[in-house]
Amino acid sequence: MQIDEVFNETLERAFKVSIPVSDLKGALAAKIEETRRKVRLKGFRPGHVPKMHIERLYGRALTGEVVEERVKAGCDSLVRDHGLKVSRAPRLTFAEGVDAIALVQGGEGDLTFTVAFDLVPDVPLCDLKSLKIERLTATVGDKALASRSQALGEHFRAFDDAPQAAKVKTGDRVTVTVEARREGKPFAPGSFKDTEIDIGGGGYVPGFEEALVGGTSGQVIDFSVTMPAGYHAREIAGKVIDLSAKIEKHKCPGAPLSRQSLVEKLGVKDEKALDERLREECAREIKSAVAERSKRAVLDALDAAHTFPLPEYLVEAEIQNVASQLGEAVEAPKEDEGADAETAGSEKVSSGAQEPSKEARRLAERRIRLGFVISEIATVHDIKVSQEETARAINAYVARFGAQSAAVVEHLRTNPEAVQSIVAPILERKVIDFVLELAEVTDREVEFEELMAPLDD
After folding, report:
1. pLDDT tens for residues 88-107?
2. CA–CA distance, 412 with 394 (Å, rounded to integer)
3. Which of 87, 103, 144 is nearest to 368 (CA)?
4. pLDDT, tens digit, for every residue of 173-218?
5. Where are the domains of the chain?
6. Terminus of the chain with fewer CB atoms < 10 Å: N or C?
7. What CATH number is given for 158-254 in this structure?
8. How crowded is residue 214: how many other Cβ atoms within 10 Å of its Cβ?
9. CA 250 to CA 30: how far, in whole Å?
10. Taking the chain, what is the end-to-end CA distance rounded to the nearest angstrom?
């Protein structure tokens, strides 16, 4: 086998490989003989089927197997001999117009192809002890209790029928019946009847609740939404779904419940007991918020401390996810695992489609970079997710889907990458806790409201 390197960059290597036709024909002859001994055909004794008959019946299929095996062996040899850390399956290209199977069968010449490998970047880890992390904390004071009491009163307040001509606004509650269509055809999984929705609650895909704002009771509103790129139903992930929503009922929020009404609603003894309950809830939320903000601080520090080249195909794919979340419409990347290996390293030609924003690219590069950094820290320091932790996480995920749990289990069974997406946050949390143990951490106390404020993307 002759190998010539034709491209060598930081994260991409390409080789031209020639496998002598004599090797291929020898392998094909051995495979035909093996098949001749094992095959059972009507009219022939076992092991006595003529070679030419086997070639006529199975020649092309067996030749295909030989080509596939020899090409795979060649790629594996390249990875092993050159010490390549590949990030995805190699991209193969045969000469235009060449039928590899016919070439081998006819013994017309050597089998030549080009193979391109995308490589995992080297991640030179920083000294984790040199990282400086600020950890925000808070205590449950009177102001926090008053804020939580007000929020709880708003949560339990009644909703009254809105005037007939009143327009839906954020904070209102509507009952809707939705008919979904995909590519002009009815789409049952996206349709539902008489469902209550709190406008502004964020319980639906981006653009859904916003489309109902300004509508009135009895009105039918037609609009489209783009499903998130990471949506669990892969057949509609990133796709546009057309919706027709009828506002069946429209209610406006009433006055928040008073503290005394909350005492009665929650079944506690008195307002002192109410405050104690709220204090416990606030303490749990503080713990969760501290963990979330500490995670962000660690990720920010790791991102700032590491610079290395990133596989562009991963960045391009992540841009699709980020753009969807930002409400941008960008064209999906054309290149995939079957792209022409002979174009390795070549510049992409613009199609004139909308380019992703700088923010979308920045966030995508950050996510990919941090993914490699976290993976490298986990590898270097032997941080792993146990089978028990994996099972608990999967069970918790499946339980969220109720009656659809059986379909979700099947989806996870046939999609290892979906399981990985469930396990990945556990590994990330372990790595972050590990970094917090080594880094220089400074605590700073802030007001409860500041700690609980939503984090920016």
Report:
1. 999 998 877 667 777 666 76
2. 9
3. 87
4. 999 999 999 888 998 888 889 999 999 988 888 899 999 999 999 9
5. 2-118, 128-135+287-341+353-452, 158-254
6. C
7. 3.10.50.40
8. 11
9. 76
10. 51
- Residue range 2-118 in CATH 3.90.79.10: no
pTM of the predicted model as reported, rounded to 2 decimal places: 0.71
Length of the chain: 457
Q: Does domain 128-135+287-341+353-452 have CATH number 1.10.3120.10?
A: yes
> How far is Cα 440 from Cα 224, in angstroms, rounded to an integer?
48
Enclosing H/E stretch for 223: strand 220-226
Strands 192-198 and 173-182: antiparallel
186 token code pair: 């009815």
What's the CA dihedral at 429, 431, 432, 433 to 10 degrees? 90
User: Given phi > 0 = left and psi -120 to 50 = alpha, else beta, which region is 352?
Assistant: left
CB-based burial label for 65 (10 Å; 0-12, 13-18, 19+): middle
Taking each helix axis as running N to C, give the angle between helix 416-438 and helix 271-305, from 0 to 180 degrees, rounded to the nearest 10. Answer: 90
Q: Let me know: does 21 contact 109? Beta carbons within 8 Å.
A: yes
Gap between the Cα atoms of 443 and 445, Å rounded: 7
| Fold agreement (2-118, 158-254) | no
CB 153 within 8 A of CB 262: yes
Cα distances (Å, whole numbers) of residue 85 to 12, 172, 361, 425: 10, 54, 25, 24
Give tens-digit pLDDT for 258-269. Answer: 999 999 999 999
Query: Residue 319: how many CB atoms within 10 A of its CB?
Result: 26
Which pair of structure tokens corresponds to residue 313?
Answer: 């195909």
Question: In angstroms, what CA-CA distances link 286 with 151, 395, 426, 447?
Answer: 16, 27, 20, 11
Q: Are strands 111-118 and 12-19 parallel, antiparallel or unpaired?
A: antiparallel
